Amino acid sequence: MILDKHTAIKTAELLLQINAIKLRPENPFTWASGWKSPIYCDNRIVLSYPVIRNYIKEEIAKQVEDLYGKPDIIAGVATGAIGIGVLVAEYLGLPFIYVRPEAKSHGRQNQIEGLLEQDKTVVVIEDLISTGKSSLNAVDALIENGAKIKGMIAIFTYGFDIAMENFSKKEVDLHTLSDYENLIQQASDTNYIKEEQLQTLLEWRQNPSQWKP
Question: Around 90, how many Cα atoms within 13 Å sit in the side-chain half-sphere?
Fold first, then answer.
């Protein structure tokens, strides 16, 4: 869910500005899932731009407080949300932990890195939501280790129906700074993309798993 339209548009504008989001309808990307996509999002690059990372940090922190008050802990989903999660936790003066996709096969075999005590309230920070599978895997790990999840805040979501269904089934509250709809609107309004590219991006969004260039 988008809380603030101005924030959604501004975030989309900044992500486009630094090429965190690449639109390439004429030469699609191939995702790890095998899906062909005219768009690729890499929000890690935000960390390389101090002014933009501060904006993202402050907007996420504001939403954490507006939606959930102050949780006991901020958790980042590895690896994409570790950096921004640390910045949010620092800004709010809260402890930080992060969650690996799976437990390490060596050492202490941790999946969660950092101190998580039983019954602590946690807000999870994510950089990107696609199907939601990896994000909710992190939530499951936190719950299994005694956390009380207040919700998740991400920088960007593609807004897939499957993601909304997955979050609904798990009863996890999700909010994002921006989404695909606002991104495409911003890209079109600023002539970042041409009309024929816009049509391709809209068609892909309707059925991404079956889309072919």
Answer: 8
Is the pLDDT at 53 greater than 60, yes or no? Answer: yes
Domains of the chain, earliest start first? 5-199 (3.40.50.2020)
Number of Cβ within 10 Å of residue 140's Cβ equals: 14
Tokens 């059925």 belong to which residue? 207
CA-to-CA distance for 125 and 46, rounded, in angstroms?
15
pTM of the predicted protein model: 0.93
Structure tokens at 139: 């939530």
Q: Which is it for the CA torsion 187, 192, 195, 200, positive or negative? A: negative
DSSP state of 100: -
Q: How far is CA 29 from CA 36, 115, 188, in A?
A: 6, 38, 20
Are 137 and 126 spatial neighbours (Cβ–Cβ below 8 Å)? no
